[in-house]
Design a protein that fits this description.
By secondary structure, this protein is an alpha/beta fold. The chain has an eight-stranded mixed β-sheet, sandwiched between helices. α4 links the parallel β5 and β6. α1 runs parallel beside α5.
């Protein structure tokens, strides 16, 4: 992929370049590093409290506090440039922060859609949640409430945003890594809300051998969350979260799906001990995502379901590459929601 191309994504027809003999090794590496950080954080901005009665400033950026069963949730919003009713939900990764959604400061997403008639909806928080409804609080970190992110993103938040003129039925959704898997799940089960979906470097075959334990390690490292509090092993709830399993429900949905090779590219800085460590982690994470994404591609092909796939020859599990993928899928979001 070339960063910054304005045309729509191309359908991938190439075969996987991941040698079969390396797949088990990639899974083992991925289990150890799935949750390790790649990008450094930045200080939090001031939160502006707002209510559904507040006036919307076209094209403005605002931070809202939205009521939910989990307590007030911060949501960062860039309003549509001309007051349109379309929305693009941008989901964070496993290490989602409590102060800002990383799309708002790790990428130029705000600038990419600054002149478009679509509101960017960026929920804050949800570390290790997979943006799903858990059945109990995590019992390994003293969590005081139960994650109910699917309920929030598909019921509570849309109802709140409707007061600002954002439609409940004219939205797109995208996410990276954990958020990539979740974006497909939310779109699959809420087709009335989402008209297109994108998954960048997602884990799209979470029932594959070794993946649950990889996710267990990752979630313990990212906030000491217990995967068993999210969904019991191989239960209907777990299978419901697996894109490989619910793939038939994606038929007819415009989708953009990508994963890079894991080879370092122009945005990697492997110099020095810290740089080499972070780059190595990002390479392994992306390689694991690539294996998952290729399996998902084969699954969709078997089902006769169309989707756009992009497999860049270089790129690791890091934000600047996802920034490029967001731009490459921008046309799909705007076309599906009439957000031009």
């Amino acid at each position: 992929m070339r960063f910054g191309r304005a045309a729509g994504p191309k359908r991938s027809t190439g075969r996987s370049r991941t040698p079969r003999g390396w797949r088990n090794r990639i899974l083992a590496i991925g289990a150890a590093v799935l949750a390790l950080p790649v990008a450094a954080g930045i200080a939090a901005p001031t939160v502006a409290l707002a209510s559904p009665a507040a006036p919307v400033k076209r094209g403005a950026f605002e931070e809202l506090m939205v009521p939910s069963s989990m307590g007030p949730i911060k949501v960062q919003v860039q309003w549509a440039a001309r007051g349109g009713n379309a929305g693009l939900y941008l989901l964070d990764g496993l290490r989602a922060r409590d102060d800002r959604n990383a799309w708002s400061f790790e990428t130029n997403a705000l600038q990419q859609f600054g002149n478009d008639n679509i509101s960017l909806i960026m929920p804050v928080g949800g570390q290790s949640s997979f943006y799903s409804d858990w059945y109990s609080p995590s019992n390994t970190n003293g969590q005081k409430f139960t994650y109910k992110w699917e309920t929030f993103l598909t019921k509570e938040l849309p109802a709140f945003l409707e007061g600002y003129g954002v439609s409940r039925t004219n939205n797109a959704i995208a996410g990276l890594s954990m958020g990539g898997s979740a974006s497909l799940a939310l779109a699959a089960y809420h087709r009335d809300q989402f008209r297109s979906a994108a998954a960048y470097s997602g884990y799209l075959n979470i029932s594959a051998p070794g993946m649950r334990e990889a996710i267990r390690v990752a979630m313990l490292d990212a906030g000491r969350f217990n995967v068993d509090s999210m969904a019991a092993p191989w239960s209907p709830q777990w299978l419901r979260m697996d894109p490989f399993v619910f793939a038939p429900q994606l038929r007819g949905l415009p989708m953009y799906i990508s994963a890079a090779s894991g080879l370092p590219g122009p945005y990697d800085k492997p110099a020095g001990a810290v740089g080499a460590f972070n780059t190595g982690n990002a390479m392994a994470l992306e390689a694991l995502s690539l294996v998952n994404t290729r399996a998902f591609q084969a699954r969709l092909k078997t089902l006769g379901i169309g989707a756009y796939f992009d497999f860049p020859s270089v790129g690791t599990h890091s934000w600047k590459y996802w920034e490029g993928q967001l731009f490459a899928s921008r046309k799909m979001f705007l076309d599906s929601t009439n957000g031009w």
